[in-house]
Inverse folding.
């Protein structure tokens, strides 16, 4: 039997039909928004009454508007004093999730912002089937190789707001074992859960509109007295023109095998902080994929190669590499491997079938000079694992 996709039911005090936690949360937010909208309208009318009373010299209008404003301030003060304190922390639950896709947006520090597309599979007791969600979370460079499309991660989510999902980077041993043994099927794209359309931005617009409407209502009530002396009305002010621009997205189909490269112009090289990640993002967008079979970086040139027929274990995700640490590897290779006059350097990144879980990339830095060629090998976290200095002449 299929599930309905409704969350845990919260019974009302009367014992009638309950609401799901998500529906109950949405209902409370709607009530709070309506109260704020009504208060904003009354505030706008009261403020307008104060201004109109001053302009017309009407003490009753001025005192009425001022009294309403003072009353609103007192109500807000009393409500704040009667508040029981900070709200209780939201209820969260732990579950497993399948990583459908991930993309690092940018980052110059140890924590890189990553956009994840997940299929969250709540526990059967949660009463909710698997669903899709898109989240943004900062992941440390050291932990990035552990997350790949098709893998399983431990997450925490809120039953009342299922779009609030956070990846647990340090799960308990029990959940780590469950994640290693679990096989989660992808949820249909139609199950994507997003923040409700009528969010804070929409409520802000509605509250502003209510404030202006309340102010306009008072002005309309006294329009005869306000504009009686305006015999010659000036021309209406012109409405400023609004220009809009649309960005077009271009998708290109990728052949079975591809090679994409770019050359950096100008005096700066790819060792400039941030230049490598920016360049590889451009290449991945041009190729239409971030899964490649090889990556080569030189002083002013970067190249990626791929083959769509290769299995995931024989590819690497170029967005997940620690480019911020590569310049330090180049400096290490140029100064510690016996090449006193380095003339060129090259970084080659390729999948390493012998790495952890069979998917870790291998990073090799090659330096060439008058003395010969030397190599330095590192793992996916830029940790040096082997040095091959220049062979000394016999």
């Amino acid at each position: 039997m299929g599930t309905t996709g409704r969350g845990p039911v919260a019974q009302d005090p009367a014992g009638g039909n309950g609401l799901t936690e998500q529906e109950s949360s949405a209902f409370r937010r709607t009530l709070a928004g309506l109260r704020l909208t009504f208060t904003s309208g009354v505030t706008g009318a009261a403020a307008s009454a104060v201004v109109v009373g001053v302009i017309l010299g009407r003490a009753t209008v001025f005192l009425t508007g001022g009294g309403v404003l003072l009353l609103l301030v007192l109500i807000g003060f009393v409500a704040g004093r009667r508040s029981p304190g900070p709200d209780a922390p939201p209820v969260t639950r732990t579950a497993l999730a399948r990583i459908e896709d991930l993309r690092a947006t940018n980052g110059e520090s140890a924590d890189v912002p990553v956009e994840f597309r997940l299929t969250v599979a709540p526990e059967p007791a949660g009463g909710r089937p698997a669903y899709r969600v898109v989240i943004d979370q900062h992941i440390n460079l050291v932990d990035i190789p552990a997350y790949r499309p098709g893998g399983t991660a431990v997450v925490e989510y809120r039953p009342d707001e299922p779009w609030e999902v956070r990846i647990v980077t340090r799960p308990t041993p029990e959940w780590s074992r469950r994640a290693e043994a679990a096989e989660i099927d992808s949820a249909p794209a139609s199950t994507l859960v997003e923040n409700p359309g009528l969010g804070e931005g929409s409520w802000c617009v509605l509250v502003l509109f209510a404030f202006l409407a309340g102010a306009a209502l008072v002005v309309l009530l006294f329009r005869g007295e306000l504009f009686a002396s305006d015999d010659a009305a000036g021309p209406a002010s012109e409405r400023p023109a609004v220009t809009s621009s649309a960005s077009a997205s271009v998708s290109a189909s990728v052949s079975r095998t591809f090679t994409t490269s770019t050359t950096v112009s100008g005096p700066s090289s790819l060792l400039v902080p941030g230049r490598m990640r920016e360049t590889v993002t451009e290449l991945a967008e041009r190729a239409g994929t971030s899964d490649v079979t090889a990556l080569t970086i030189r002083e002013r040139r970067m190249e990626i190669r791929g083959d769509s027929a290769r299995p995931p274990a024989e590819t690497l995700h170029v967005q997940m590499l620690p480019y911020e640490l590569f310049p330090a590897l180049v400096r290490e290779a140029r100064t510690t491997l016996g090449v006193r006059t380095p003339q060129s350097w090259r970084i080659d990144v390729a999948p390493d079938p012998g790495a952890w879980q069979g998917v870790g990339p291998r990073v090799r830095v090659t330096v060439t000079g008058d003395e010969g060629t030397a190599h330095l090998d590192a793992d996916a976290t830029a940790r040096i694992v082997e040095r091959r200095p220049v062979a000394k002449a016999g």
Remarks:
- The chain has seven helices and 16 strands.
- The two ends are 77 Å apart (CA to CA).
